[in-house]
């Protein structure tokens, strides 16, 4: 028997029991007459003590011990004279009468403790060691718990978990596909799925009216904190439903997870924000509504006063940073530098201080008098002591920059507490978006997204104004999931393909199997897919999904632990009928 108990299990009620523990040595403290060792496993830490009564043979073994040695110990549970309230096992310790070294360890490349001295790349190279650390283990425990609760909820709602293929047909209209050469079909390739979209729709045609899957998806795209080349979706589809049915079921899932995993009880309906409102008020289709600071457009109020910067632009808007009129010139200059960063993209920043005495101080005093600034302040619901921050330019670009500024101010003012959660739905997305370079429409979501019934006439007159039966679920400014009601009518699908410039032949080549299936009685259906990794990271209070993936890739898409991707030998290439072209490194 390697253990009778785990290292996180023993309590004061166990005093007097003879126990066996196994685990890794966390630390060794030799105090001369006494030696204290902390023993760690997945469940916690227990202190071991070797005192003056310890045999010479046991002391010899103790002297050999080092960090991360794997040991088995037997001994008696006693009450600690100096208790540690920070440890769940801090009321007891084990007086050891038997010690077996199961495996020795080299000195690890970083300290395996909550606060480690290992950098990201080093810890990813030795990820199997990083996974021993409490915070990383806790992240994976959270992920496991969420996965179990998701399955429990969806099973209770009569959803069936069905697996779909990983080797599928390439349809590169979104992110780049990862492609897989076929040895048995030389010169032909599979693709790894960006999502199981077409398969879940086929399952609806098959009569499985409630499907879900917690599934790996793959996209060959540039990476950042919330992206990985392989990621996990909670993929769901339902038949005989309208948008309201989808929102009700999956708002129920979110509330269930908040309660079961985070202990938070949301009783009111989540806010529903139209795409248009989200862009006009927050400059983002994934608004962080934990705090206010909504946009106020002052284009009409600010133009015509001789200030060329304002008079020559399409859009002028700002935010009201409450109680910030005391900002110094240095702080305002820092904000100006922030909005001028390439990733933000504004040309400059106009500020208006609404001082406590009711006077104004602004960077545009030369062009706008106190009456003008008072009018702005009234329109932006400002009070004495507030600070107005204003950007100007093209509408889309300025809204995006103002969103970045709003979030920056939210961070500076402590308004984005990771332990506060503000979920919402964003609805009524545009059906199509215009691409200037290619001079044609693309689907905002995908070609099978259904338009609003009341907008169908716009197919012929103004397709860019059509709204979709599409919806996104957002928590704290992070898009957790999105979906839509699908097109299941052949005539409507033809109109959609025509609006996208997809010919009949192209549609048949890319989606022929799905269109054929629709000929055999497709039900009304719709669904949603949630980013499981993202949901875990939001619940765990992290900005990076890597923290919640057991073996993630780095920002270059590499697994530095196993050194992948890597070259394959010539024989494998020959079997696959592939010749490699050396990349031009210039």
Q: Could you describe the 3D structure shown?
A:
The N and C termini lie far apart (61 Å). With 586 residues, the protein is α+β, with helices and mostly antiparallel strands. The strands form five sheets. Strands 6-9-10-22-21-20-17-11 form an eight-stranded mixed sheet, with helices on both faces. Helices cover 29% and strands 23% of the residues. The mean pLDDT is 94. It contains 17 helices and 22 strands. β1 (18-30) and β2 (35-41) form a beta hairpin. The chain has four domains: 12-103, Nucleic acid-binding proteins (OB fold (Dihydrolipoamide Acetyltransferase, E2P), Beta Barrel); 135-268 and 529-573, BirA Bifunctional Protein, domain 2; 291-412, Gyrase A, domain 2; 423-522, no CATH class. It has helices at residues 56-64, 120-125, 127-130, 134-156, 197-205, 243-262, 275-282, 299-302, 308-311, 329-339, 370-379, 395-412, 458-461, 490-499, 504-518, 532-539, 570-575; strands spanning 18-30, 35-41, 44-50, 70-79, 92-103, 160-161, 179-181, 189-191, 210-218, 230-239, 272-274, 296-297, 315-321, 350-354, 360-362, 387-393, 423-427, 432-435, 440-443, 470-475, 478-485, 525-531.
